[in-house]
Amino acid sequence: MQPTPEQSPHHAYPDHWEADVVLRDGGTARIRPITTDDAERLVSFYEQVSDESKYYRFFAPYPRLSAKDVHRFTHHDYVDRVGLAVTVGGEFIATVRYDRIDATGRPASAPADEAEVAFLVQDAHQGRGVASALLEHIAAVARERGIRRFAAEVLPANNKMIKVFRDAGYTQQRSFEDGAVHLTLDLEPTAESLAVQRAREQRAEARSVQRLIAPGSVAVVGTGRNPGGVGRTVLRNLLAAGFTGRTYAVNSAFAADQATIDGVPAHRSVGEIGEPVDLAVVAVPADRVPEAVTDCGEHGVQGLVVLSAGYAEWGAEGRERQRELVRQARSYGMRIIGPNAFGIINNSEAVRLNASLAPESPAPGRIGLFTQSGAIGIALLSGLFRRGAGLSTFISAGNRADISGNDFLQYWYEDPDTDVALLYLESLGNPRKFTRLARRTAAVKPVVVVKGARHSGSTPPGHAVPVSRIPDATVSALMRQAGVIRVDTVTEMVDAGLLLADQPLPEGPRVAILGNSESLGLLTYDACLAEGLRPRPPRDLTTAATPQNFRDALAEALADRNCDAVVVTAIPWVGENGEAESGDGEVLAAALRTAAATGPAKPVAVVHVEIGGLAEALAAATSTAAVPRVVRASAPAAPDASAAPADRAVPPTAQAVPPTAPPAPGDRLTQQRSDTGPGDTPAVPTLGRIPAYPAAERAVRALAEAVKYAQWRRQAAVPGKVPEFLDDTIDEAGAAARIDALLGPEPDPRGRPLSHDEACELLGRYGITVRPTLPAPDPDAAVAAAARLGYPVALKTTAPHLRHRADLGGVRLDVANEAALRRAYGELTDLLGKPTELQPVVQAMAPRGVDTVVRATIDPAAGAVLSFGLAGAPSELLGDTAHRLVPATDRDAAELIRSIRAAPVLFGWRGSAPVDTAALEELLLRVSRLVDDHPEVVSVALEPVVVATQGLTVLGASVRLAPPPARTDLGPRRLSNY
Questions:
Q1: What predicted TM-score, i.e. pTM, was given to this entire model?
Q2: For residue 133, which of 190, 76, 95 has the smallest C-alpha distance?
Q3: What number of other Cβ atoms are within 10 A of residue 471's Cβ?
Q4: Burial environment of residue 474 by CB neighbours within 10 A (0 to 12, 13 to 18, 19 or more)
Q5: Is residue 468 very low, low, confident or very high in pLDDT (cuts 50, 70, 90)?
Q6: Most distant CA pair in the chain, distance
Q7: Residue 68 class from Cβ within 10 Å (0-12 exposed, 13-18 middle, 19+ buried)?
Q8: How far, in Å, CA of 354 to CA of 394, rounded?
Q9: How confident is the model at residue 803 (pLDDT cuts 50, 70, 90)?
Q10: Hey, is 868 helix, strand or coil?
């Protein structure tokens, strides 16, 4: 909506202030600037506000707005006077306005930095968090316009408004003057205000998902009149799942006298239903979707699952159709899963929703699954079904034009029915937000991700995402930093998910291996070493082992304090006639479950080869519901009298091990051990099912991911910090002033590289000293430079094609005197070219050490990334570089150095002296702090950084400045625009 010319002759309509937001109850609304065209909307809005709310706003009875009021409240200059409105369905439900004032409270212009602010929320929408969302947005607008404080007068009885200000988290002052509460808010964001904002975001977005995933009623719009078809299939699946709410079939082609279809009420429109509808599943052709959305929106539907295709995956025309779909749905306060979605499933006993096209409905369980691909969703559901795994929720979001994986991370974070989150992602619409949400969720439950479309330029056509320049290896490293378990295939995702859902987290990497095949045990041992685990020598129970032998060996391994996890390997027994017996897997499963249920809580995985019924029996234990263990001391189980003798090579019998008691469904596996009091028998929580794998490598890889995740969880419990000593040696204000001067009043959007001297000056303000270099355009200049710096010196070229390429002969080190320098200069120019091409420089020699490289870059999608590696071939040829998101903590810096494969070189490899890694960590923290404090610093490269046994030397540095990119992760809450 654009203003008239008279409204703002000098300031264009700020369309970047427009935003869709999710309110506390999960509904959506739009926030936008008020314009002169809004006079009628404002009057209509005000007429629907109660007299009490009007009194709170104006401190006196104020039944109607005068023409002068309407003009004042709709005419703004977008600088000193700003008004924002919240709209639903195009109509106002709330407004906020600020007026810049001076120290006396009179209207003013810049440089005055205070403004008076006032809110008005329609009574029907109070309690939805509207005012809180408005305060975030009007505060961001004010900061943009140079306003630093808000002043507000509130009547003491207006408790709701006082609470909005009090709970916002801003620094504030309160006083009581002339019968009103006078509030002053400092608008500079604080840690508390950011925490409040993100907590509200989490609750609102989780609630918006809950409205979709747990509806009280569902209408299938586009239910076919004949069997088959998308709509009719969804209706059939809803009924087959036993949905606990009300179900309706909608098709405009139904005959006027048709009352039911498949036993549910049939209607020609949502409006005809006459009862509230929470969720609509839209399965009509794309050109008829707008009509269906209007019908739903005008009759109070809360959310949509759009199965219809023909949107962004079809090109530019479809992309615009998709944008219009999102705009239309949000204008009614509805959120969308889709379009081009496969559907949603909620296995909660209170809901039993299957609004999807899934041919096989998964069993109830504790795994949440999100996928952007319907085909991958089908494959995952089928694989989980075959392995007996259960799901709490399933979502296939298609083009994910609105609801995305981020929203479901918000939901799963506090969902008591979900213990593990699995996500198949083909694109990241908001990478910064994803890593933030994933880190928080991973702190309480595992998050396993497969990232499809990993290579540049392969983003699925239906997904509109910001362009990212960072390689996939960097994305993987950043996910790991956030605690995300990144795997390469959907098979690995299922393997890891089953282990994490059913087993406790391991306390370390020590693995016991036992089984009846020496060869399979050795394969498992090798796989453990390859994955960085610490396996114990495999225990061979021989092919004559009975289920009782397996039970005893597993109980003994679990009781061993030097063991953190157990892998059981099993092959078919050899019968008395010499033939393999693959049956009776149920008996072995019962033996293993008994040992696991009575021993200490440690993860157990089974690797089996063609043992009939074993995987199914292990999976049938409890599906993926965690169950309480039998409370028993941690001792090996006594041999069962009915067990077959160990020296007989016979198949096990059904009487070998008594079956365990049936599990109690629904108990969560959220802690590894139960608390015990003095003198109590240790109470140990039970395991659920034991995951079984057809190959040792798959079981061990899943276990290795659990080990790494458990280690991350332990470390995340005590977060790292930025050392205080950095504050004493950093001139943040001076650096900011210098950056402003270097960029100038009208900076080039493309940015500019700094000269060597400019870069050294800026880095110096953050305690980063670069070794001086002097130009050497001819031999005499080189000699003069060496005399100034002192011998020995280095002579090197700085031409772009030769920089950092010692292998090409562009560097001469340890030049000890003038004669040697003149000789090196001649050799350099004879070999590589003229001095004007080589741009030689002279630099004092640094102490010997390990050459490393430190970089920081700003990615428009992921944010600031800090990188580290060894200089030369390790990082450039082999890609051996580690990455962390900025701001980096002391722990991040330490891990950054130690996570590269060549890290042993820094710690005394092959008898060399360890280098000063503490100095290296400090340098990393200084670079991190620089780019975090000043987003205009879009690139820093320190190369090489020579790390000696004492201290380090930065020999080369480059810095690039540019206008700071938008930081949507720090602004007010808003939904992504696609």
A1: 0.83
A2: 95
A3: 15
A4: buried
A5: low
A6: 107
A7: exposed
A8: 9
A9: low
A10: strand
